[in-house]
């Protein structure tokens, strides 16, 4: 059974960098042919793709966040990480990691989700 667990600070100050880690169990993040995603959902708004990292280590970012987002992985720990720089209060959201069988930009292709973690951007 595949499980994903997000971890990281729940409060980040404006202009700082948000950093979240997704720890995966029950599967390898290098296993063919999966994609490992970060999504977020601000209060009262729709789910939004931030980006993904493929089983090969290739990354894709939502064009609207590409200049601030970075996704990397640690294969020895079976984890992948999101960094979002220069955060603003509008980055306040529930952040989710997930696994998809292909590259996708909408949440309904996600097979497995983490429970999500709330990140608040505030001074």
Residue-averaged pLDDT, rounded? 96
Structural class: mainly beta
Please outline the major beta sheet.
7 strands, mixed
Low-confidence stretches: none
How many DSSP helices? 0
Shape: globular
Give the SSE order as H and E letters: EEEEEEEEEEE
Helix content: under 10%
What is the C-alpha radius of gyration, as a whole number of Å?
A: 13 Å
What is the tally of beta strands? 11
Percentage beta strand: over 45%
Q: Kindly, what is the distance between the CA atoms of the first and last residues, rounded to a whole number of angstroms?
A: 39 Å
Q: Can you offer a commentary on this structure?
A:
There is one protein chain. The chain is mainly β and 123 residues long. Helices cover 0% and strands 48% of the residues. The chain contains no helices and 11 strands. The strands form 2 sheets. Strands 2, 4, 5, 6, 9, 10 and 11 form a 7-stranded mixed β-sheet that branches.
Topology:
Elements: E1 3-7, E2 11-12, E3 18-25, E4 35-41, E5 48-54, E6 59-61, E7 69-74, E8 79-84, E9 93-100, E10 112-113, E11 117-121
Parallel strand pairs: 2-11
Antiparallel strand pairs: 1-3, 3-8, 4-5, 4-9, 5-6, 7-8, 9-10, 9-11
Question: What descriptive keywords fit this protein?
Answer:
123 residues; 4-stranded antiparallel beta sheet; 7-stranded mixed beta sheet; mainly beta; single chain
């Amino acid at each position: 059974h595949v499980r994903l667990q997000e971890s990281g600070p729940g409060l980040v100050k404006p202009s700082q960098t948000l950093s979240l880690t997704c720890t995966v169990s029950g599967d390898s993040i290098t296993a063919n042919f999966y994609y490992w995603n970060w999504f977020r959902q601000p209060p009262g708004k729709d789910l939004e793709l931030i980006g993904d990292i493929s089983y090969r280590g290739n990354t894709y970012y939502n064009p609207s966040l590409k200049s601030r987002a970075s996704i990397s992985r640690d294969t020895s720990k079976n984890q992948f990480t999101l960094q979002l720089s220069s955060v603003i209060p509008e980055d306040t959201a529930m952040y989710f990691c997930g696994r998809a069988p292909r590259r996708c930009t909408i949440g309904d292709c996600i097979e497995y989700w983490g429970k999500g973690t709330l990140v608040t951007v505030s001074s």
